[in-house]
Fold each of these.
Amino acid sequence: MTQPPERPASTHASTPAQRTAPPSGHADGASPASVVDVAGLWVRFGSVDAVRGIDLEVAPGAATALLGRNGAGKSTTMRVLAGVIPATGGRATVGGLDVRTQTLEVKRVTGYCPDVGGLVPRATPWEHLQLAARLRRIPDGWEERARDLIERFDLGGAAHRVTAGFSHGMGRRMSVILAAFHQPKVLLLDEPFDGVDPLGVEATMDVIADARARGAAVLVSTHLRDLAVQACQHALVLRGGSAVAEVPADELRGEDGARAYRALLD
Amino acid sequence: MPTAPSSTDELDVSTLRRESRRAMTDVQHLFAFRLAGLRGRARHAAPIALGVIGLVTVLVSVVPAFVPEYDLTRRDVLILLPSAFVSVVIISVVSAATSGGGRELLPRDQAVAFPVSPTTDHLGALLMAPLNIAWLLQCWAVLGATSYAVGARGTLPLALLPVYLWLFTATSMAQALAWSVEWLRRGPHGRLMVRLLTVGAIALAAGLILTDNVTPLLDRSPTLKIAVGVVAGMNGGGLQWGGVVGMLIWLGLLAVVVGAWLAARVARRPARDELRVESSSRTTRGNPASDLVALLRTDRAGILRSVPMRRGMAVLALFPGLVAIGGSFRWDMLGIFPGLVASGGALLFGVNSWCLDGRGALWRDSLPVSPRLAFGSRVLVLSEILLVATGVTLVLAALRAGLPTVPQLVAVLTAAVVVTLQVVATSLRWSVRRPYAVDLRSSRATPAPPLVMVGYSSRLALATTFTGLLFNLSSQGGWATPLLLAVPFVVWSATKLWRTSSAWTDPATRARVIATVAS
């Protein structure tokens, strides 16, 4: 297989002219050590380049949205950062750990809500939490926080039900809980709002806000521009596996933001 | 693609005719759709596999006729044919009924986007019935036996025609019966009623065996008429032969129509068993004491809480045991049973182990745990399930096998461990090499495409039967011989498992498997 270049020559967001905001989540331009640091990320599946040289930084306490059409490379980027798929080229560090060589350690500091499903069909939500708590070495007493989250996401009545019978929205809400309940340094939420009711959206927003408040870096991948703008301070717009713009989320707000976003997708 | 009729459509002969034509056209569309979905090697392998099945069918129909008559005379085999014909029905009923109405031409999760009518579903299930190694072996055995009984003569095709028709008729009848069982299962108290029926059938079979009434009953089997048709065909056809052929065609077509009618009734009832499990609540257990216990719990839940897995394992544990009781197998032959059970168990889910996590696979892989430990958990769970099923079979088989000698007992127990390891090692290697995205919630789903399953089952059956026979023979050399014989097998399987485990630790390989099963 031909190796991709370490740094592709034409990554839009890498060119200073097109950076309209500092890469970190700090609007004042201060650049504390980024928790998520991605440079020239490249992922190839067979003959398809799913991600083509993305650069990305997320500072502690910041939330960045990954926006773009289907197949833009959002979920693939998230999967690389979660340590689920290896990158073909480039560099990705999470909490100072190299995703390629310190995968297990990276998994310890991240919380990942996958874009599809995310739940083992014949296990209950509580059993998912027990598995995660055990493997993540969460000290005794985690149950209280888990119950609180389950209640906040309105899944109290389904905590001991097999997840195969869950609706899509229930599954999404539970996936967010599983990503967040161990209070990870990096919260990776892939399509967390997809098919979720307004109460679930509100609870997810709270989870993102809580994570930021305790200094975690948050990455949210979504098609829903309005919610992305609401949840994040920055947005990275991807197209065909490349970053085409990195803008303050506010610039994508309202009618003007919708037009600007639309223009970036074509 | 044409659309299925609405339930409010009037049902008359012309509607039925139109629906039949639609269903047949739809089956062609769906079959073409499945073939178009094959990628890479599978695209070339599918026609080859179908060609091999066809070729073997022709060979077993012709070659035995030219085999010289031996101790087992052609007449002896001819006398046994009616019983062999019954076995085709039994294997077809068991296969179709345990899989909730037979295999689907298009998996349920993919079929939701298309208006697939129950008649199409029924015809598809009939079309898929031959893609089952147990059915194929039984049919080949019957064809081979008939061919041998008839001998090399010009009328062989005429003699074989009733048998070919019987294979079609028996399968159609079994399919209709399977729909009836499924209809009952989906009704009020369905699970209980089906269980009572099963227990009743087992009790009846046990009663017949214990009172030595099996042979007299088989002597009065209606399948005698088919044997009469075979003999008539052997003698050049005639009215009797025509009568049997006509009756089989008529019965077969009737079974297809009745089956379609029953399939429509089944489609109107929700799959209660599956829905009940999917919405069931589970008692909370204490927190797991170790990483391995946590992984084992999740892996076991994937199997033990699945309706098709539980049903399949119960059949696999009980059916061979009952066959062993019925056939009065002695201890020197029991060594082949562990292989049959282990192969069958692996074919339920083991050959695509990671598909049990479904879309939760991505999340599970994001958890911080050593890939080797996660792999080890799969190995343990698959091994324990296969060993439990094998244990039940051997206990049942031992009931009429008499007292074993020490070497015989050691040989059978060693064979059980060896073939289980063999099957686990092979299954996990296939799971890592060729994963498939499969929704195993449906009783009718298979862990890999049907044609692939035929390949898997033949390879497993061949390897484990050979191993079982070797261990049967080894008991003649004293108790230490089976143990010594086991050493190379265990080393081979352990090496294979270690290599697969190493492949699993490769992030790219793991990502491919996880992305496939979660898609």
Amino acid sequence: MQAEALERESALLNVKKESAGRRLWNKNKVALLFLTPWLIGLIVLSLIPMIASMYLSFTHYDMFNMPKWTGFDNYINLLTSDLRFTQSLKVTLKYVFIGVPLQLIMAFGLAVVLNRGVRGLSGFRAIYYVPSLLGPSLAIAILWKQLFGMDGIINEFLSIFGIAPNSWVADPSTSLYTLIILLAWQFGSPMVIFLAGLKQIPTDLYESASIDGAGRFTKLFKITIPMLTPIIFFNLVMQLINAFQAFTPAYIIGGQTGGPLDSTLFYNLYLYIKAFTEFQMGYASAMAWILLAVIAAFTGLLFLLAKKWVHYES
Amino acid sequence: MQKATPYWAAGKFVLLLIGALIMIYPLLWMLSSSLKPDTMIFKELGLWPSQITLDNYFKGWEGTSGFTFATFFKNSFIVVGLSIIGNLISCSLAAYAFARLDFSFKKLLFALMFGSIMLPHDVVLIPQYILFNKLEWVNTFLPLIVPKFFATQAFFIFLMVQFIRGIPKGLDEAARVDGCGHIQIFSRIIFPLMLPAIVTTAIFTFIWTWNDFFSQFIYLSNPKLWTVTLALRGFLDATGDSMWGAMFAMSILSLIPIFIFFIAFQKLLIEGIATTGIK
């Protein structure tokens, strides 16, 4: 039994030399005990599914019949003839590249203001943070649909300024912006990260700058922002990855189909429709890999550009 | 540093207050609407209901598709509770290995663990669904719970590794001299000492699982198994635009557990985000 277990474990760790097996076992047996649940999860629920997903992306598969190999057909169809796919990519890119910067600018601005010292700091921090805690829930998506609807309070508020009422969620030219506002509304968690970063900046930097006669803005641009670039970078990467995968708000606000006129057809919503309502599992798998490539390309680009603007202390 | 004038400080305070009000106005509006009779909801911009009623809560609680919200809350708590237990056990075990033990391919495995945090869920979604479907786990809680026992939310491993690295190694060595093995060092020394990381993991598992819609949505179609989130969607589908009061009342109830967690653990939560950068 033990020998068998040993062999299994050794195989797991990719051991090639049998002679060194005993030594390897002694070195790793304790770690293996602790790592086994995670390793099983990694192999069975991540690595094998990834390989399977890669394979399926080259097939036609509907869950009921065997997968049929179709080569690059899924990818070619997606990239050349599927207009809804192109639309979903456009919608998502717009959402990510307007929403995330907006969210981070608000987070940064408020963190800087709060950090300068204000009465009731922890109270403000808590109130500004709450939306990012509740924001991802379905209840908030439902609320948003109402707020920006024809009878919603946004219209009532705007009517004070004489702006004509509109159903912002039902108008294809504005519906995506209601989702972008929902994303920006959740600026609390990056704000808390910025606040923690601001506390790390040594105060003597500001003091010596003051002696040199630097003003508020000089200090902001020459000290605060450069010192915070690693955190700005971190927030940018994390929020970008999250935003690319948004689903719930589009599903609820876009009435399950990404409407009106596909104006809120998020990438993940379209993937869901393909996989779980049309049962085109192969096609949806190809979409998953394209999304991975898109996210990897943008984060890779961020990492490359990081060398130019992210300032790490040596 | 320049001294701020009292006027500037007061002005800033007022602006921040207005900002805070705008931020939570939607939430307060939903709360106030849930207490208004249906016919009044879209008539008033103000927050204070001119007429307070709990009707919406009673109506909403009756639920949808033959089950009340008592069932839906019970289901949510089962899924969330077991997810927390799973994450705590599996992630703390792996974290101990990464933080304290020496083993082959440690760097590679750590890189894999770290990489899996950033991996978009989509690339494993479909094969996982096929697997759980083959196991006949669709329409059970298992696809939502079992992966947690295998540390699939690797983010928490990372969080715990960071924390364990901050615990002085002298404590482990003293215990080893006293004849403790790794299992005892882990269970008697490290686990109790990493309580803040444990609580942070529990809080975030609670919030993420409670808020999760997508995986619950694809795995649970039987109304008997619906969680609160799924029930809200079912309710929205069934009533359309006709019962906003009840809809808002149940939405408020669905947010209350998260809110209670936030109030109770605010300090740990904010420290958790600040040190690790989680959502």
